[in-house]
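Changelog-adjacent note: as of this version, every example in the card shows the full chain rather than a window. The one below runs 138 residues end to end.
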Amino acid sequence: MPKNNTSNQDMTIFQKVKQRAKALKTEVFALYFAYRDPRTPWYGKVFAALVVAYAFSPIDLIPDPIPVLGYLDDLILIPLGVVIALRMIPSDVMSDSREKAEQELQDGKPVSWVGAVIVGLIWIALAGLAIRLVLRIF
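Full-length structure tokens:
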């Protein structure tokens, strides 16, 4: 029987995606340490804190069950936020932060309840706006 190269190729693609996801998680956690570092400029701290809070929030801005759009934040928004934050933080700070992140991530994924509150408030504000618009129409 001939071997199925497609399944082997799919497995390597899956492994690559899994490695990239793990690297992204490490980068986000490194941003957590970087925004707490006194060597990071204030604007880098603010932006990195927002990225970290959103990335580790148990609530997504766009819920995952929504087809296609549900994973938009995981595939585009978070990586884009990480790239922008990395440009704002000195490389020596990120190097130190990556080391701390790799050590700490062995204990498990952190959860940001502050991020959850922020996302929850955004949802409440959007719901209030939607209700207001519906009341104006009727």
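Structural remarks: DSSP finds five helices and no strands in the chain.
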